[in-house]
Design goal:
Elements: H1 4-12, H2 16-35, H3 41-58, H4 67-86
Helix pairs in contact: 1-2, 2-3, 2-4, 3-4
């Protein structure tokens, strides 16, 4: 298998074969990361697609040249995608199981603040 630093250099130049190899190599891990944080498979698939589109769009600006840095960058994009999908829904935590909302992480975090002026 080709070294990751060469793949990243080729991908930065827009070579579709290098982008495809990176996609296939990192897809299982990124999908698994996202699937563990969202309520259903369809959402996980949508977000995984968004992550790899952002990878293609941003790889030219990426300075990472090793696998760990590249993987960390993809995981950050994944975390941001999960948060952006769940924030508009007003949830305090990402995952809901069997239709039961997650509990607030601290007392009062799920309630509105009262104006004490």
């Amino acid at each position: 298998m080709e070294a990751i630093n060469r793949l990243l250099d080729r991908a930065r130049r827009g070579e579709s074969e290098a982008l495809s190899i990176l996609y296939r190599q990192f897809l299982p891990g990124i999908f698994g990361y996202i699937a563990a944080r969202v309520p259903d498979r369809a959402t996980a698939e949508d977000l995984t697609s968004e992550v790899f589109l952002k990878m293609v769009e941003g790889i030219g600006r990426l300075r990472a040249s090793d696998e760990a840095s590249f993987a960390a960058w993809l995981l950050q994009i994944s975390a941001d995608a999960c948060l952006s999908r769940t924030r508009p829904l007003g949830r305090r935590c990402v995952r809901e199981t069997r239709g039961t909302p997650c509990k607030p992480s601290r007392p009062g975090s799920g309630t509105k603040r009262r104006d004490t002026r």
